[in-house]
């Protein structure tokens, strides 16, 4: 079993954690997506992952990054205590596990949780332990969804919240005029 350890480990992987902040929670849950929200297909550049320590186990095809983990991607930023990247064969991504004070953010969205697992084969992102999704609209209003476990099927744009789910909508979200638009309300008069 060959194992290699690097201090100040640094690896660049294209699109490695894109699903983590695609944050493709359906628009029905968070309302209309902001105009400035990045599009997954428009990512340009590399994803850079840094940490104080990196170990790669060739026999088990797993990279472990620990202490001050930071991921910088053209579409998001992630910080956590540990990050595991499981490969299948030669450099084919299989699964990503992020643990400890997980924080993923972009221009207008943020995810926090204790643990996040992304499995490439089914496009599923599972966030556990005080999981919270937050989106800030252009008008400054904030939508939040939280629960002990939030599962997002990235390719299907579907989400499931279990163990004490909670959705917080900004003031006025359920008003008839706000929901239908002022023009539609005036047409009925």
Q: Give the strand tally.
A: 12
User: Helix share of residues?
Assistant: 10-25%
Q: Rough shape?
A: elongated
Largest sheet: 12 strands, antiparallel
| Oligomeric description of these chains | single chain
Cα(first) to Cα(last) distance is 76 Å
Rg over alpha carbons: 19 Å
User: What's the helix-strand series?
Assistant: EEHHEEEEEEEEEEHH
> Kindly state the mean pLDDT as a whole number?
75
Question: Which structural category fits the helices and strands?
Answer: mainly beta
Strand content: over 45%
Low-confidence stretches: 1-42, 182-189
Our count of helices gives 4
Plain-language structure description:
- The protein has 189 residues and is mainly beta.
- The protein is 11% helix and 51% strand.
- The protein has 4 helices and 12 strands.
- A hairpin with a 4-residue loop joins β4 and β5 (62-72).
- The radius of gyration is 19 Å and the shape is elongated.
- The chain starts with a strand and ends with a helix.
- The relative contact order is 0.16.
- The model is unreliable at 1-42 and 182-189 (pLDDT under 50).
